[in-house]
Amino acid sequence: MQGLWLCLLVAFPSVTCQKYVGEVLVSRAVVERAATRFLRERDQLFSHQCTRTITASWNYHTNRTLYNKLRLLAAQEEYRVLQKDSWMLVQRWKAVDNFLEDPSIKYQLQAMSVLSPAALSTPYLATYMRTVEAMKGIYSSASVCDYHNTQQCGLTPEEGVNEIMQRSRDVKELAYIWKSWRLQTRGIRSSYALYVDLANLAAQTNRLANKGELELVEYGGGAFKEQMQKAWEQLQPLYLQLHAYTRRKLRQVYGPQVVTERGPLPAHLLGDLWGHQWKIWDILVPYPGKTRPSATFEMKRQWYNPRKMFQVADDFFASLGLPRLPPSFWHDSLLQKPLHRNVICQASAWDFCNGKDFRISQCTEVREEDLASTHHETTHLQYFLHYSHLPYVYRQGANPGFQEALGNAVQMSVSTTQHLQKLRLLRTLKDEPEVDINFLLQEATDKLAFMPYAYLMDQWRWRVFDGTYKERDWNCAWWDLRYSVQGVKPPELRSEDDFDPAAKYQVGADLSFTRYFVGIVLQFQFYKALCIKAGEYDPLYPSKPLHKCDFYQSKEAGSAMRAMMQLGKSRPWPEALEALTGQREIDASAMRDYFRPLEEWLKQDNQRHEEFVGWRADNQYCLYQKSSWSPFAVHTSALDTFSPSSTNSTISDQLPYYS
Known about the structure:
Blueprint: E1 3-7, H1 8-11, E2 23-27, H2 28-61, H3 66-94, H4 103-112, H5 122-141, H6 161-167, H7 171-185, H8 189-205, H9 211-216, H10 224-254, E3 265-266, H11 281-284, H12 296-301, H13 306-319, H14 327-332, E4 348-351, E5 358-361, H15 368-387, H16 402-414, H17 417-422, H18 433-446, H19 450-465, H20 474-486, E6 488-489, E7 494-495, H21 505-508, H22 514-533, H23 555-565, H24 573-581, H25 589-594, H26 596-608, E8 622-623, H27 651-654, E9 657-658
Parallel strand pairs: 3-6, 7-8
Antiparallel strand pairs: 1-2, 4-5, 4-9
Helix pairs in contact: 2-3, 5-8, 10-26, 13-15, 15-16, 16-22, 19-20, 19-22, 22-23, 23-24
């Protein structure tokens, strides 16, 4: 029997070792059996606590009372304590990792070995939580006053602000709202340096250099940055064409003094508070009046109701050869808004961690958009069902982008006119190229326009965490990235008195943006792969363009989805990706394929109007404290290494509930 000298405290955490008699001869088999028992015990504890916490969360989401809120907070604290306790025990097992041969044991221990920010010692964790709550508090209490009536205040992004940004065409009003919001949120800067130090300390506690490295653990490490860069470079040619078209249309409305012929886009004119989704359809629409018909009228005529809509979603997955929803779903879910209870109406899917209880909470209305949403949320339930046999640590998507990406891919399929015709919700329509271009352009202003912002957000954060950007340069470095990557500029000269990244909630709330970028790339990658397997897309046949594909009733597509979903997180994410797509890296070429008709149209339109493709600096955008600004180059001076960082670790991220 092969032996090794081990401390009993390492192999068997319940046993105490003495200083000089703490080493004994233990076989590998004994160590692996002990590790298996430890993992089985932790799995039972986590599953049980997950059920308690998810139940408390469900009760609060579906009945927002103070009593239910206090129960939820107590359950969340119990979950956090279990996490910390398990993480500390796993650190002991890491000491014998080289002597464990079973890859399943090693992979589970590895999955449990990273924890943040809860890895911090109690005083630091308390300070970290207070700091993040303070930043979130500044954001949540921020509001602005109406431009035309300064006595009318309390406007927020959800209540009035984004509506103004979409509707108004008054340059002064838009600039006022844009600047006012950033005046209200720039106070987050006073807490951000402390947050960076504590986040980096949490990463170091996990034996990682900084918070950025900690966030990338879920994607396999720092090498994933190269995949992100490659994906963005794949999208750039299409984005440049969309950018040029948008600049010309904005210039027609606001004039060349506001929107220069070769400059970046003014951020305050793009239809939302952050300029990451261009909600100015009345300006951008190329063919007014040429729209896809809506299925909403026919749904109401056929007496659809919320239950019927979820039955249609269940039928979709059954047509792929996937299991139907369990009976408990139908009597325990909340499918429409109750009359006499205060509920959170955001659509969400819930896994109660016991292998049998799966629910959806959605205030469903009878309309086409909600029919698509029912399919999206049901996709999450299918994912839950398929990995429910795995240990708790594996019951999630292969990386943070997988679940939403698959739900969105399904939503793309069921939103096509072809699918709605199969459901007898639309009549057969003749092909109209103008309708297709309008549809694709509107999709691009939502998905494609978002990609550079989603890419640069964490590029900025990671360079803050690793010290590439010093605190004195944080805001100007932000505008360097927005200019160079997104081709966007502020409405006025900014300075280091401002803190414009914090105008977005995720910055102060310690939430990574990478999952959004990855999720959109994977959404189109999954969709293309499923369409090919269903025989509904072939790049050699223009009669079957990708944006019209519906993989309904394809057992081959269902088999590919099953192969990926049943892996959960039990294997590295490239293996899960390969199970569905045959590829092992994220690949944005599928997004290019989807928008190919639009890209060709944009090229022709930009050429016809002799529009400059790309952008050049037309002013100074941010005033560095030192005179180091160059109007034609991004600021990339070498800066001192700052202190290392932590990862976002919220209950909603760690427990199986997806919105």
